[in-house]
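Self-study notes.
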Amino acid sequence: MGKITGFLEIEREDRDYAPVEERIRNYREFVLPLPEPETRAQAARCMDCGIPYCHNGCPVNNQIPDWNDLVYRGNWEEAARNLLSTNNFPEVTGRVCPAPCEASCTLNIDDTPVTIKTIECAIADRAIESGWIKPEPPARKTGRKVAVIGSGPAGMACAQQLARAGHDVHVYEKWAKAGGLLRYGIPDFKMEKGIVDLRIDQMEAEGVTFHYGAHVGVNVPADTLLADYDAVALTGGAEHPRDLPIPGRELDGIHFAMDFLPQQNRRVSGEPLGGVKEILAGGKHVVVIGGGDTGSDCIGTSIRQGALSVTNFEIMPMPPTRENKALTWPDWPYKLRTSSSHEEGAEREFSVLTQAFEGENGKVTAIRCVRADDKIKPVPGTEFTIKADLVLLAMGFVHPVKDGMLASLGVALDPRGNARANTEDYKTSIDKVFAAGDMRRGQSLVVWAIREGRQCAHAIDKFLMGTTTLPR
């Protein structure tokens, strides 16, 4: 490393946020990048570890020490080339990845990990601004055709890798635009959609064909794809939400998070809602049930829509503010995490069991709750009621939607209801049909979807050609 003693001389410094009172007035990104000198100084903190444990935490195998050193030396273009060799969309992960690499950083033993995510985002944004991200069409075509079903991060990564290998790749997307979760799930204040559009343009220039409004198993017969293509990759999401079947669930005003969030993303982009009933938080007391990233996104969106109050329920006890490093490092720790949306005005309640929804004239007005013990059992005498005009269920997803494509193909499922395939060849039970991302592993992170999409492309290329030069 260029600065062997950097970690001893330079304190950790990370990106900041625009003030709450400013950022909640719009849906633009609000993370404030570090100036270049400070970013390079942060890169100098990388320790030149004998065993770089950040690799243990990074699903896409980013060569983190290498591009940290290149940034420290000011060689941004080479840093971008290195980063893009392992991650198709670092401008995405630099914004929305929870950075398990930082949890695995050796300096995290002291709670001062290298700002890997910030440096990654700086490299990616510099590459975009400098025009270094260009189409990479193949030198020759193989004559093989591949259908990729789903244009989320797994599908996009898979399609891009296969196109660069020379295959004729067609992506089938049921919605009006590509991106999946990146476009319709993640709010614009966390990631503006021009980033997704940039990659779609690049992929089209590389030969990828996108088919929109093409819902395989609904308005596009799945068996037609099997007949027309040499290989098919199933890369849709785990979209079946976990429900809350308690008394009053039928009341108006109780919605799944992924019925709520995509509407706002469509409003921001000017895409028509398609005649669905609008779900809006303005002037309402909102309760978000579920304490993960999706719940956080519901909070930030509700606040921007003008909610009177936002309360976040989590069924689990409040995690510790610090993990026991001796027990958890370098693995991802269980500890309290406060998102930017939580800081914008939400009340967080832990160890809460929701027992029933109450309503008037068919509309939800309140929720009956009780405190839970550490075994998630009700604590007698702790019952309470909270006012609620809008309830958003953000309790995760159980598996892919089985009706339609999976049912018509007859793909075998694993015990959790996901498409059954291993991580060696990504083959399903159906000949020439592969599965990757949340479709195969269940709900997970964007960075895991990118990894699986790349590895699935490697497996498909090897299946079609007998050998492959695509990286895993």
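Second protein, same conventions, sequence then structure:
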Amino acid sequence: MKVLVVEDDQLSREAIVEFLVEDLKLDVTDAEDGTAALEILQKDKFELIISDIKMPGISGLELLKRVKQDYPGIAVILMTGFSEITHSIEALRLGAADYLLKPVNIDELAMTVSKIQERYQLINENKDLKESVQKMGKEVNASTQRIRALQNTIRDIQESGKMAVFSKHMKQVVDLSLKFHKSRDIPVLIQGETGTGKEMVARLIHFGEGLESPGPFIPVNCAAISEQLFESELFGYEPGAFTGARAGGYIGKMEQAQGGTLFLDEIGELPLEMQAKLLRVLQQRELYRVGGSQLIKLDVRFVFATNRKLKALIDQNKFRSDLFYRIETGNILLKPLREKTEEILPLAQYFLEMYSQRRNRAFKFISKPAASILEKHEWPGNVRELQNAIERVVLLFDDEQLQPWHLAHLFVENTASVPEKVEGIPLRPGEVVLPEEGFSIEELEVEIVAKAIKRFDGAKTAVAEYLGISRSALRSRLRKLEDRRK
């Protein structure tokens, strides 16, 4: 893989180049700034660019924009010594493959580069298979299946990778999940309140980081299955096993997960009788279908999740202690959002940008009063509640900045009875909030102009008349608006 390193600090640039060449055996070219990088890109082809964000002249973000416009096939990793969330989110929004904080951790760099290498290998393999299908008529069916499997693998891994990590706790969860991914024989128990992302962690344990096909991921919600159907649903049954059974029998969820992962969510709802049978399956790695006499060997990874206190259920004789100690061999505890408040604003910004893009809305920023409301809210539904709250805002409103009154539904079910203030912060539009640390009249002017332009569909004369200013004064404010959007 050919790599272009763009870094204005010579020592840092030389250290990165040396590591990529000597340790990772890559073909590396370097540039001292964004301008030099663009000149090099006109002459040579690269699969990966590793660039600093803060550079004189063309910044790393501007370089990323141009690369995605003119060379969309090149992956870009950005580095920054400035750990503001806005930089990282903006980089990902513009299409960066990843971002790294400086000084760069070489292990993280190696891991990130490795993932991009594997993705290129898979894409090239996919391309080769497509070409072979066109040439080899006899092998069309087999090749087509292989192509679809590769495409499904790419899609599944992309789906599993949508986990926003904004705290040390979630970084530890991810690291632990990847360790468990390497040991298929270890059952894993994920514990956490509703909405903390237990299924997403289960999918991470299943998919890991590689591009190899990890087999099927079969989720089962134990709370959604009636007690009478548990055994046939999990173990399957032979034809005629009981009245009402399908003529051809049924392959249970455990067999469907062969070579992959069975995810049993809400394991605390599993009936006691089934708990004993599940324990035997975990110990012996084999089962009989209902009404069957053939022993079926299992190659299945077991992942469990619960929002209940299993030890309390053991004390109440509702959960077997031997099963508990068996399934908690691998244990992951997800903290509620109220215990990791440092995640709230980054997650809210992440969801705001994601849903704004999906629904073609103008939202880009979170105002300080709205941020204060988000941080102080208890979030009993955790990350899922936060995500749903932001999605609702984007669905119902279309402003550039998220304001307190957009979040009124957090406090009342009927928005017609919205209180005037919550902890001194107005929840109704039209009220000006004067923060203690200062207030920018220019920013307010720019926001008013932006809304007026939208209201009159860009008709500048109408906007100037509406605001009671001259067209030249309006042009001055429009330039400020344009500068802000850049």
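Instructor comment on the second fold: The mean pLDDT is 82.
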